[in-house]
Design goal:
The protein is of the alpha+beta class. The protein is built from 36 helices and 34 strands. Strand 19 and strand 20 form a beta hairpin. Helix 4 runs antiparallel to helix 5.
Length: 1056
């Protein structure tokens, strides 16, 4: 490539090449050709390579003007500024943008090393003129140290600006490592090392100084003032002065060394800590407290012009050269060999290599710097600045400085997008926005937004569609299109145009706030209604009806149903659409055809009984379908009898009725039949029977359910039901015959006789009065003594019992059955006496013992019941006695009549007080006036109607003779309640009287008492009349007449 090409315009500025992960060979330089064809080939290779790890930018500003007449020979960086030394002996201070801020013309020869203190306040420089100069950036302070020979390296102590000692270390061709600083009264110079060849490089980190000379790299502990480590050069290394040694601290304990084609990583460790961890070290006390352990060492196929750390990786600035001509030249420590001077050739472009700690290649970039053809390995420098938020590498050549930074997430996403690797770019963008972190764990500070993710996603979807991968494009659509209804509509039409609508269908939003235009949903429904009716039906169930015009879609479905009325998918969709558009009749009809579960719940809320009645065949078929489904699903279906249907129990013994009968019974319990049965007023029985007359099984299911729910309904069809039961459910025929009396018994018997239904024939014979024939049928045909006994119990005919006993006396099984089951219906002695002598009867002894035991138990139960009755009576009497003795507290507020609400006056002897245990208080007169009326002398008021029924009143009036009318008239004419009316014919010797009571409207409410004269008194002629009154009084007992004064009157309030 031409030296005038801008290295920052990729791929010219840096070309990325990378080997596979499995490549374990030493690093190889990237092949670079200066020909035009090779340049084009390199660009093609770059396009195919993986993403570069670093991004590059040439330092601009005033640097280009500064280097027009000078060249960079050394450089150091801080987070505030850059310091460069030039071959003209000038130290330039630049800002981070490359603008010249300050300059120090302090040397007369090339500056070999520049060092900035950790506080970024002082800059030290070393030059071939033998000077070491320390300049302050913010004051005029300058420290000058002169040496007799060129100085190659200088380093300032940590916190140089803050320490009064102002110590620095320097070295060069004088072959001395000199520690210089300020003492109490003057400066001091301390020689740390000497006589081992020139000092080529120095780095100082906290209390450790590392330097390189011809022998290798050594380390010095400033605190203990001891050398504690020596790292030799690898065997076969080129002569030390041919290539500069590059030293770099990764951290306080890790030293990185790049010298010629060798890379070493050493870690400083404490010897005592290592011994405590079990590392063996003989005679520890005589050794330095610290040592260096080489953690990584490898050789390269290029010259290392600079080394720096990048997380757990190593960045190497490489100079490409043929290493075969350089190795084994004057191998150290020999000094007698002469250097071999190779013929000068045109140099290749420098490269940046990234390797791991084992030297395995990760990535490399080819740099195109100005004038690279004329530079050598020592002309390049690598400086780096690492901060918690950023890492920057400065790639220095004599006429150029290029900055390199690790590519952040935004760079990676852009590169992936440019390479059409949209899936990776999308995944990375989503991850970064979700975690807000970079790949190295640092906080993300980029400019990526949700809109950028959507834009990348749109490109990704487009690329997938171009590839024909519509299925994957559909799966990615939700996370890309998100809640943007417009984008969703656009992409739905894209899939529709490509005839791939089924792929994106599951992801089309239909819930929440994201709703597309109604026309979009209708277009989707229309397409599937034409091409895939099953999917259309699923969409109708899934999508809310407010997404589209339900009326239009329903009309379309109904139109298609006219052409294909049995299409189950159209029917299924038609149900939901008809419900949504309030076309409930059609919804019910479609649901019955399709046997949709729960469809019958529409009937009652929307009064669809007319539809139910006109399509009764579909209703029964629906219930039969449900019954067959339940029959298959129920593991215990074989023992199901349906006995509890409509509240009818059939017993506890489960029998296998057969699948046919079970399905019929299940259908009779179905929801549709239930609605028909319970709403016979809106679904007439006669109409339903007429429709079902041609399908006898359906007719039986309906009539059976009707009979079991309401036996009085459909009585006109009971005769027909006999034959239906005989055909479809014979086990229920006997129950029907017993429950109904509205069938022709003779016809039923003839049918049962033809079908040979013996139990039913027995029952019908008993009903027709031919009990003996029925009993004979049970005995001869069934041979069931228990059924014979049950039949005799039902008829309760002593002659029938005699016939049963007479037939059984010579049959031991029947005798045993009679003895076990007779109980209290017949005397067992009667059976025992008729047993022929000598007839062997199995278990006779046990049965006789059982009979006697049962008799004893009966007597014991009677005695127990009697004792319980006596005990309960005593307990209740005691409770009554205790309750009557219980005191009741009444306050002054309570002392008033509960009827007239007037307060009691204890001074009036006529105003007697009646107190009930319920704490209600009454005047005696008020209480008697509220008792139950027998007959009124005035018309009753609306609020006080008589409680005696009219028939009872009429009977009582008939019993009143004319002689009693006078007395009764006097009773009704009494002015006040409770008056004793004397009869005119009674003797004054005996003041016999009749006590009465009046209600508040003046009517008589009861005859209180009747006093009769004794036999010795006069007035015996009136005794019959008075006795009539007594009879009149006693005849009204059932209506609560007060027979014995207030004692017989219950509390009116509690009674009400």
């Amino acid at each position: 490539m031409s030296s005038q090409t801008d290295p920052l315009d990729l791929p010219d500025a840096c070309t990325a090449t990378e080997t596979s992960e499995t490549d374990k060979m030493p690093l190889r330089p990237a092949s670079v050709s200066s020909s035009e064809e090779d340049d084009e080939s390199d660009e093609d290779d770059y396009d195919d390579d993986d993403e570069p790890m670093l991004k590059y930018q040439r330092l601009s500003g005033t640097l280009s003007e500064t280097l027009k007449k000078d060249a960079v020979s050394a450089m150091d960086v801080s987070d505030r500024f850059l310091a460069i030394g030039t071959h003209w002996g000038v130290v330039h201070i630049l800002d981070v943008g490359g603008n010249n801020v300050k300059r120090f013309e302090c040397h007369s020869a090339s500056v070999n090393c520049v060092c900035i203190d950790t506080s970024a306040e002082f800059v030290a420089s070393a030059s071939d003129d033998g000077k070491v100069v320390v300049n302050s950036l913010y004051t005029n302070e300058t420290a000058l140290f002169r040496h007799r020979r060129p100085v190659k390296a200088v380093a300032l102590e940590s916190e140089y600006a803050k320490k009064p000692s102002k110590t620095l270390v320097s070295g060069g061709t004088a072959e001395e490592l000199l520690l210089t600083g300020k003492g109490w009264f003057s400066s001091f110079d301390t020689v740390i090392a000497s006589g081992e060849g020139p000092i080529w490089a120095i780095v100082w980190r906290k209390d450790t100084i590392a330097w390189a000379n011809d022998a290798g790299v050594k380390l010095y502990d400033v605190t203990t003032q001891t050398k504690f480590a020596y790292i030799d050069r690898p065997h076969g290394s080129p002569r030390a002065d041919l290539f500069r040694c590059n030293l770099c601290w990764k951290d306080d304990e890790t030293l990185m060394i790049g010298w010629a084609d060798s890379v070493k990583i050493g870690v400083i460790k404490d010897r005592k800590s290592a011994a405590a961890e079990g590392v063996s070290a003989p005679n520890i006390s005589s050794l330095p407290p610290r040592y260096v352990e080489i953690m990584c060492e490898f050789r390269t196929d290029f010259i290392v012009s600079g080394i720096a750390p990048l997380l757990d990786q190593i960045v190497l600035l490489s100079f490409i050269v043929d290493m075969d001509g350089l190795r084994n030249i004057d191998v150290l420590p020999s000094s007698s060999d002469e250097a071999t001077v190779s013929k000068r050739v045109v140099s290749q472009q420098p490269e940046v290599h990234v390797v791991d700690m084992h030297g395995e290649h990760i990535a490399n970039d080819v740099l195109n710097v100005f004038g690279y053809e004329h530079y050598r390995a020592n002309d390049y420098h690598l400086a780096h600045l690492t901060s918690p938020s950023d890492t920057t590498f400065y790639l220095v050549s004599p006429k150029d400085i290029i900055t390199a930074k690790p590519r952040n997430t935004d760079d990676r996403i852009k590169w992936l997008t440019d390479k059409a690797r949209y899936e990776e770019a999308l995944r990375l963008a989503e991850l970064v926005l979700a975690s807000r972190k970079e790949a190295d764990g640092s906080a993300y500070e980029g400019v990526l937004k949700d809109a950028d993710i959507v834009a990348i996603g749109i490109k990704y979807l487009g690329s997938l569609c171009e590839e024909g991968n519509y299925e994957k494009a559909a799966t990615q659509a939700p996370k890309i299109l998100r809640n943007d209804a417009k984008l969703w509509e656009e992409w739905v039409f894209v899939f529709l145009g490509a005839n791939r609508l089924s792929f994106i269908l599951p992801f089309i939003p239909y819930q929440g706030d994201t709703r597309l235009n109604k026309s979009c949903y209708e277009m989707v429904l229309s397409r599937f209604l034409e091409t895939d009716k099953e999917t259309f039906s699923d969409l109708i169930k899934k999508w809310p009806t407010d997404l589209y015009n339900a009326v239009i879609v329903t009309d379309a479905v109904e139109y298609l149903l006219t052409k294909d009325p049995e299409n189950m998918h159209l029917l299924d969709a038609g149900i939901d659409l008809s419900v949504a558009t309030s076309r409930f009749e059609k919804a019910l009809l479609y649901g019955l055809k399709l046997h949709r579960p729960g469809i019958l719940t529409l009937v009652e809320p929307h009064n669809l009984f007319h539809t139910l009645q006109t399509h009764v065949h579909l209703v029964v078929a629906y219930d039969m379908h449900v019954a067959e489904r339940d029959e298959e699903a129920d593991p215990a279906a074989r023992l199901w009898t349906g006995g509890a249907a409509f509240g009818v129990m059939e017993g506890s013994v489960a029998t296998d009725l057969g699948e046919y009968v079970r399905v019929s019974r299940r259908a009779g319990c179905g929801e549709g039949v239930r609605l028909l049965v319970e709403n016979a007023d809106r679904a007439p029985v006669s109409s339903i029977v007429k429709q079902l007359s041609q399908t006898r099984r359906s007719l039986h299911i309906y009539l059976d359910a009707l009979f079991r729910a309401s036996p009085q309904e459909g009585v006109q069809f009971h005769s027909s039901q006999v034959e239906l039961y005989a055909d479809f459910d014979p086990t229920r025929l006997l129950e029907f015959l017993r429950s109904s009396a509205l069938y022709k018994v003779q016809d039923a018997f003839s049918l049962c006789e033809v079908r040979d239904l013996v139990p039913e024939m027995v029952y019908l014979l008993g009903k027709m009065g031919d009990k003996r024939k029925a009993l004979l049928l049970v005995i001869e045909r069934l041979g069931d003594v228990n059924q014979a006994i049950d039949f005799a119990k039902e008829q309760n005919d002593e002659v029938l019992w005699d016939d049963l006993i007479r037939y059984s006396v010579d049959k031991p099984p029947f005798i045993i059955g009679l003895l076990e089951n007779l109980g209290s219906h017949i005397d067992p002695v009667k059976i025992i006496r008729q047993i022929p002598e000598g007839l062997p009867i199995p278990q006779l002894r046990a049965n006789l013992i059982k009979i006697m035991t049962d008799y004893g138990i009966q007597m014991s139960l009677r005695e127990g019941c009697r004792k319980i009755l006596v005990s309960d009576a005593v307990a209740l009497m005691e409770a009554l006695y205790l309750s009557q003795r219980r005191a009741a507290f009444f306050s002054e507020e309570d002392l008033k009549c509960s009827l007239c609400e007037s307060r009691f006056s204890f001074d009036d002897p006529e105003k007697h007080i009646v107190i009930y245990f319920c704490r209600h208080l009454y005047h005696k007169s008020c209480l008697l006036s509220k008792s139950i009326a027998l007959k009124r002398s005035v018309p009753p008021s609306p609020g006080l109607a008589p409680t005696l029924d009219l028939s009872s009143s009429a009977r009582l009036e008939e019993s009143i003779t004319p002689e009693m009318e006078c007395t009764i008239h006097q009773i009704y004419s009494a002015p006040t309640a409770g008056t004793s009316v004397l009869t005119g014919a009674l003797s004054p010797t005996r003041a016999s009287s009749v006590g009465i009571a009046l209600d508040r409207v003046g009517g008589m409410v009861g005859i209180i008492s009747v006093d009769l004269p004794s036999e010795s008194e006069e007035g015996q002629e009136n005794v019959p009349t008075l006795q009539k009154l007594i009879g009149l009084r006693e005849s009204a007992r059932n209506v609560g007449l007060a027979l014995d004064g207030v004692d017989a009157v219950s509390c009116p309030i509690c009674r009400a």
